[in-house]
Amino acid sequence: MVILTPRLDLSVWDGELLALARVFSELDPEGRRFAGILRDSLDAVLDARNTGRFDPEELRIDEFARIPWAVKEGLQSVFTFVPGRTADLVWQRPQGDVPFDLKISFRRPRPRFDRNAVGGVSLIVYADDARARWSAGLVRVRPEHLAPGANRDGTSPLTAEAHRGAVLWLHRDAPLPENLLLHLDPEDREAILAGPDDVSRVAELFRRVRFRTVPASALRALIRATDPMRTVRLAGAALREEGLLLLTGTPRGRATAETLRLPVPEPDEFVCAPLTRRRSEHGTRPSVVADGAAWVVAAEGDESVPLPEGFPALRTR
Question: What is the pTM of this model?
Answer without folding.
Answer: 0.80
